Structures are given as structure tokens and as C-alpha cells.
Amino acid sequence: MGAQIRKIEYVFPENKITNEDLIKEFPEYDFERFEEKVGIKNRYIVSKNQTGLDLAEKACNKLFESYDKNKIDYILYCTQSPEYYLPTTACILQDRLGLRTDIGALDFNLGCSGFTYGVNLANSLISSGQVENVLLVTAETYSKFIHPKDKTNRSIFGDAAAATLISKTEDDNIFKFKFGTDGSGYDKLIVKNGCSKFPLDPDAEQISYGTDNIYTDNNLYMNGPEVFNFTTKVIPSFVNEILEANNLKVEDLDQFVFHQANSFMLDFLRKRIKINKENFFNDLSDGGNTVSSTIPIALKKYCQNIEDDNDLMVAIVGFGVGLSWSGGIIKINNKL
Prior knowledge:
This protein is α+β, with helices and mostly antiparallel strands. The chain contains 9 helices and 15 strands. Helix 7 packs parallel to helix 8. The longest helix is centred in the C-terminal third of the chain and has 22 residues, at 224-245. It starts with a strand and ends with a strand. The mean pLDDT is 95.
């Protein structure tokens, strides 16, 4: 008995922010160079009264247009933008979607590695015989945490949600996964204020960083160079560990789908691991870095461009906030 990713749907908010829009606010910033290097043209952000849960609900209902929601046995909800400190947002989602009450529902707080963690968790629940159909939801609204004058993070991050159906199959289609954690780097990507340790501070001091970026401790802070250094140091060898654990080589994979952080970083990793361009997904032009939703969005886009019905062997790898990383091998087809 095994499991397989059967269906993925995703949604963006309606509010589209182009590079041309950002130029009006930051005329001194070279967005032409940014677009060429980072690869982002558009990002979408929620309205003031819209939340990650609203996006999650839309993504799930989109999936239910072609799948019977009464078959769902478990919700795994990955977010760092919860509706409340408590209760669990997954419980609210169960009610909003009108799902059965005899199902499991839990949140887990992970960002860029969240989808790959979620796939493995769903596989474990199914393979252990406890459930047959898991709804893995990733939803993030980082735009609510970003300071209006933080042009770097406003340029990079977008809001989105994805709903992924993972179901029981006779054969294994989700193979061995591996994980990594280095909590010493917790402060490299952080919203310092607003939880138990430090409350929100209405008088928080404005801090400058990078190229004239502004934030406060109430806002999202990312040490870009340190995150880049961590990723380029850890991920190439980690990918080789995943391949070895599954007795595979680079050339055995149809596609590598990494967390879509930025185009420059992805291309650096591709070259370091020696993956051909045609076997490596790199496209975040429309949507930007949507945190835990980048991989399911990328998988959906990739499969939409595949014409034949053959099964595809794909490596998925997430990395980022935590610092955390995880990844593994999955078998999918173009019907996602």
C-alpha cells in the first residue's frame, strides 16, 4: 500500500502588483535588473480584510470541482499566517468547506519546506492505514508582515494558497524523504514581535538594512545573503543524499522542482548539482515567492505542459525559514 499526489489546485489573490507598480514607489531601484536576476514580474497580495484562510478555502473548493469532498479523511494545513493564535485554522477550514466531522485536522508552522514536509506526513498517515485521502493545504500571506518601505521583500514575496489531494494507491508513488534542521539560524528570516516572547510594539523603531530597506521588529526581516549562503552550502549535498537514499542518479529523474525562491539562486543550485536545464523547473515570474505554495504551484505548471500520460519521476526539495529543509522523490503524471 502506498500513496500518490492525485490533484493540485492553487489560487492567487486578485490584487496584482507588477514591477511597473513598484517602480512608482521606488523609482531609484533598478527593477529591470531585478526582473532579469530574480525572475519575478508579478506578485499578488491579499486585500486588507482577506486572509490566508480565505485563499485556502478558494483553492480547496477549486479542487472539489473535480473531486468528492466527502472522501477527505484528514486536513494538513501548512501556514505561518494563521487566522488566530488559537484555535487551529485547519478546524475552521473543515467547517468552511463543509467536510465530515469524523476527520483529522491540524496546522503545522513551516514555510518554504512546508509542502515537502506535508507530502511526507500525508504519506505516513496513508501508508500506516489510518486514512485514505489527505487534503494538504498550503496558504501564506507574508504581505501582511512586510513593511511598506521594504522594497526587497515586497518585490520577492507574494500571497497564494494551494490544495493538494494525496490518496491511497496500491503501489508506492511517494518514496524516501530526508530532512534537515538548523535552528541556530532562526533569526535569518523572522517576524520578531507579535507572539509569546515579544508582543507587537506600536512604537517599534524603524531599522534600515540592505539597500535602503526599512522594517521594524513587527515586520518580516530576511537576511538575504545569509539565507543564500545557507541554501548554496546545504542543498547540493542534500539533493545527493536524497538520490542515494532512493538508489537514483540525477539522470534518472524527469524533473527537479525546488522551492521557487528566486531565479538566480535556483540556477546556481542547478549548475552546482549538474542538472540539465530541461530537467529543472525555474519559473516564478507570475506570483513570485509564495513560500510553502511554490512547489505545488510549480508541479501544477510543469504537468500542464506535459502531453503524454507516462508517469514522471520528480524530486521535490524545500528549504528556508527555520532554518529547515526537506525533500524526496515522487511519481506523478500530467493529470494533476
